[in-house]
Amino acid sequence: MFDKEISTDVLVIGSGIAGMRAAIQARKYVPDVTIVDKTLFGRQTLSSMAGGTTGLVEGYWSFTHPQSVDEFTAFHIISNAFAVTGIREQELEYVAAKEVVVRQDELKEYGVLNPRGQKSYGPPGRMGWANIGPMVEYVKNSDIKCIEKLMITDLIREGDRVTGVIGFEMDTGKWVAINAKATVLATGGGAEVYKRNNTPVRATGDGFVMAYRAGVQLSMMEFILFDAWICAEPDLPNFWIPPSYARTLGVVLNKDGEQFLKNYIPTSTNFVHRELPNLEWGDDMVRRFKGVVEKPATLDPNDPFHQRYGAPVIDLVNTISRGMAMEVDKGRGDPDVPSVYLDFSRVPEEVWLSEPKGVQGLHLLRNHDWKNKPVRMFPGALGNFGGCIVNKDCETSLKGLIAAGEVTYDVDSLRHANVFGVRAGDTAGLYAQRNELPAMDTGKAGELSKRWREIMEREPSEEGDPRKVKELIKNLMWKEAGVLKTKEGLERCLAGLDKIKKENLTKLWAMHPRQLREAIEAWNMAYVGEMIARCSMMREETRGTFNRLDFPDRDDAYWIRKTLLRLEDGEMKMSSEPLEQIYFKWKRQKVKVKGMDVE
Amino acid sequence: MTEKAKAWTRVDQFEVTIDREKCIFCLNCFEACPQEVYDIDYENKKIDIVLPKECLICLHCEEACPTGAIFIKGAIRKQFKPTPVKDMWGWEGIKPPE
């Protein structure tokens, strides 16, 4: 059934920062660690696309530059940075706050230069390469077994124990079974399900679907990070306009030339302060955190955006995305392309000229007459906030399956990937030390692979072209479950996905292993899309990056909850449960979200 | 506009090029590209540039190519070294526009 059978102590799937760190860490416990990726190491990862470990850079959170673990915890639980307000897993945030600086400094050991003092640099697509690149070299030069271009298709499960995985080689098409004592899932996110995205093409959420099929519970899939600053010029790629000085000097306008962001950005004070009245303060809480979060915000004198709106841009990304989408929705966007304008005309020439010194990303805009013509931009998907449920040691509900990075719940940044990658490595290493290699039923595994092998045998057809199916899903998701969601749209989305599953997924065909990879990705994308749409249907509120036009208020009375989904009897079973509020408790009330009622 | 500024904002003639003689059809460029700029022509055993406008000039393909067949003309090829935050954000004398 399988052309190759491999056994290993710890298997790591995925080669972003989380996967790399997990592999290096696990190697400290056991001699035989294998790391696999469906393509070349590090290249198709968000770690290489996004601005390195920007989340950890000193001074990046310039207004509450965290001075202590408590401050860091408070900031990340309360603030709106990246994805959500109020529904972060507080225990995990505390762990991340405690360990983040140590983990960041450790990057030096792997050849990363100056991990604390850097910001985004390099062109879009390789801003994070200065972090992930040296780590790829480090891992390749170590005695960790590296297998590139091996697509993992399924996790193999015996009872509640994951015994290994199956997959196929990209160059030869040979099927491989890997038997492992512990398996680390670090496959990243699936923002590629959206037409407009700023992720590598291979970020199709395979890990979500593999884990889902194996019976792992997933959570919060409705939260997608929509980054606001994605170029929407038709003749330029959808690249992320990097946080440079020129960008902060640029002005965001709608078609009437109005600086509309002020209608959406709440007050000219920072988010932590704004949320203070919405929190319940017990005595112990007051003792521990009140001083920390009430510390006066310091405006960064060098950041014009910060000066203008009272909070650094990173904290306002969701708000800006919402604002842009609302303006376009109300017909105040660009008439040709759904977008708003980023006007650079008042950026002094010397600023533009000095950009290449540090922030090289804007060089793509050199083709653009930025002095006279504003750049069109519109939000695009960047990553998934939700994913597999893990505890603080990165264990999932299945024995021997450990998950870290974007594939897990509550992990939305490289800061988390760094911390929890190491934790996953520790857990996997210890688990492999203490447990024997489980018996793997290759017959059963072969049965699982049949579904994919059939794809290779099918006759080519129009409906089953993997690329076209992918496009169908991406367009559908962007149209019906994009930045602004409604019940009707989500229903149309689910119906559309159902149709795609029945009519297209059953006819998927492939002539070559690389096409088979795309076919499996298309299959996975349909399921990731369904997860997103179903969870979005459940959450009847607007919060952080999640906007429901039919439920414009933030509902702290009910929706400090997480949505859950799992596979039960062949169906996606939905539920929800209250979030544990260890450190911060929200008042049970509805909070108005500014800008959701703009006419 | 100064001459230097003109040079910097001039239409940039970058172009993805493949040296067919050096290409060994290892498909690393296809694997490395985050934007699907390349596609594979299995019949003729060659790699095609199908979406050149999607190119981010990230140079992943150039680096992944084992024979140096891929070259992106007009790309900034200087070493992207991490720059300390202070150097980048310690702007003096430039006032943000109102």
What would you note in describing this structure?
The complex is a heterodimer of chains A (599) and B (98). Chain A is α/β, with parallel strands linked by helices and 599 residues long. Chain A contains 17 helices and 22 strands. Chain A has helices at 17-26, 46-49, 69-78, 90-106, 129-141, 206-214, 245-249, 271-275, 283-294, 304-309, 313-329, 349-358, 414-434, 442-457, 466-480, 487-503, 513-538, and strands spanning 4-13, 33-36, 145-147, 150-158, 161-169, 175-185, 218-219, 224-227, 251-253, 279-280, 340-343, 375-377, 380-384, 387-388, 401-403, 484-485, 547-548, 553-555, 561-568, 571-578, 585-586, 590-592. In chain A, β19 and β20 (571-578) form a beta hairpin. The N and C termini of chain A lie far apart (62 Å). The model of chain A is unreliable at 54-64 and 356-360 (pLDDT under 50). By secondary structure, chain B is an alpha+beta fold. Chain B has one domain (4-73): Alpha-Beta Plaits (2-Layer Sandwich). Chain B has a two-stranded antiparallel ribbon with strand order 1-4. A two-stranded antiparallel sheet of chain B has the order 2-3.
> How much of the polypeptide of chain A forms β-strand, as a percent range?
15-25%
Shape of chain A: globular
Q: Which spans of chain A have pLDDT < 50 for at least 5 consecutive residues?
A: 54-64, 356-360
CATH structural class of the largest domain in chain A: Alpha Beta
CATH superfamily of the largest domain in chain A: FAD/NAD(P)-binding domain
User: Helical proportion of chain B?
Assistant: 10-25%
Q: Helices and strands of chain A: which structural class?
A: alpha/beta
| Straight-line distance between termini of chain B | 22 Å
Strand order of the largest sheet of chain B: 1-4
Number of domains of chain A: 3
Quantity of strands of chain A, as a count:
22
Secondary-structure topology with pairs:
The complex is a heterodimer of chains A (599) and B (98).
Chain A: E1 4-13, H1 17-26, E2 33-36, H2 46-49, H3 69-78, H4 90-106, H5 129-141, E3 145-147, E4 150-158, E5 161-169, E6 175-185, H6 206-214, E7 218-219, E8 224-227, H7 245-249, E9 251-253, H8 271-275, E10 279-280, H9 283-294, H10 304-309, H11 313-329, E11 340-343, H12 349-358, E12 375-377, E13 380-384, E14 387-388, E15 401-403, H13 414-434, H14 442-457, H15 466-480, E16 484-485, H16 487-503, H17 513-538, E17 547-548, E18 553-555, E19 561-568, E20 571-578, E21 585-586, E22 590-592
Chain B: H1 3-9, E1 15-18, H2 28-32, E2 38-41, E3 46-49, H3 60-64, E4 70-73, H4 85-89
Antiparallel strand pairs in B: 1-4, 2-3
